[in-house]
Amino acid sequence: MSLIDQVLASPAFERTRDFWRRYKVNRIGVVGLILLVFFVGIAFSAPYIAPHDPWKMSNNIFLPPLKEGNWILGTDDLGRDILSGIVHGIRTSLFVGASAVACSAVIGILVGSIAGYFGGKVDDLFMRVTEFFQVIPRFFLAIVLVAFLGPSIWNLVTVIAVVTWPVTARLTRAEFLTLKERDFVMAARALGDYERTIIFREILPNGISPVIVNSSLEVATVILLEAALSFLGFGDPTMMSLGYMIYNSQRFLRLAWWMAFFPGLVMSLVILSTNMVGDALNEAMNPRLRERSI
After folding, report:
1. What's the pLDDT score for residue 7?
2. Backbone φ and ψ of 203, nearest 5°
3. Are 71 and 63 in contact (CB under 8 A)?
4. What span, in angstroms and rounded, lies between the C-alpha atoms of 62 and 77?
5. pLDDT tens, residue by residue, 174-211
6. What is the pTM of this model?
7. Domain range for residue 237?
């Protein structure tokens, strides 16, 4: 049997094919996935496809879209290319979104799994800490933390991860409370497996689906949060972002509508595509909704 035949016959490939069969039933999810892949491709190739340096100024200020071939979407008040800014802004938004959600998921999974598995005083302590972060509005907490740490891309990722992990922690805890008394967990305990093995090899793989779905939906929220922080001047001043472009355009809405319209449109499409993918993942991975996907 060739390597390709072995891969095609493997259980992992069968599970992947079964998942894709359920996912593709949702046509909106497929459209969202195509859009998201398109934006990810732009993000990875931003330095190569952007017509100009997004920060480079010129004498062609407030140039309307399609006025000249070199400035397809026009220029801003400093003569910077709008299209180049959008291309690099997509890169920044997706980087912050993916990185912050990944860090948030790691924190939430660790807190939720420990709290749900051990219970008792450990659970009470971890949940009180979780509730402390939940009762404070995340946007205002993010502003305070960024103002304290300083406006840089990694500080943005850290701050957003800190304010968004509680939801993942509660989801993970709920799954652990449901699964830790199942027969396969009891069997692992009877065999003398270490607790970390039971947590990360037995329970977590069986309860990770809601976390994945929540993380995919959280990407849109994180992108919007990063744009809001950049709009208020708390973004990384060395990296072009869609939020900064919208912030810079507010003074010139009547004079140069394109400065706000195109970055806002692209941001809406990025957020919409991640939400569509998240909804489709929910239908494909949620056992209660699988009948709709068949």
Report:
1. 53
2. -85, -50
3. yes
4. 6
5. 999 988 888 888 888 888 888 888 888 888 888 888 88
6. 0.87
7. 3-293
With cut-offs at 50, 70 and 90, classify the pLDDT of residue 159. very high
Residue with tokens 């939400």: 275
Please report, as a single letter, which amino acid is at residue 266.
Answer: V
Which residue type occupies 108? G
Nearest to 245 by CA among 54, 98, 39, 52: 54
CA distance 226 to 148: 16
CATH number of the domain where residue 255 is located: 1.10.3720.10
Domains identified in the chain, total number: 1
Q: How many residues does the chain have?
A: 294
CB 164 within 8 A of CB 138: yes
127 conformational bin, left if phi > 0, alpha if psi -120 to 50, beta if neither: alpha
Q: What is the DSSP letter of 14?
A: H
The answer to whether 255 and 134 are in contact (CB under 8 A) is: no
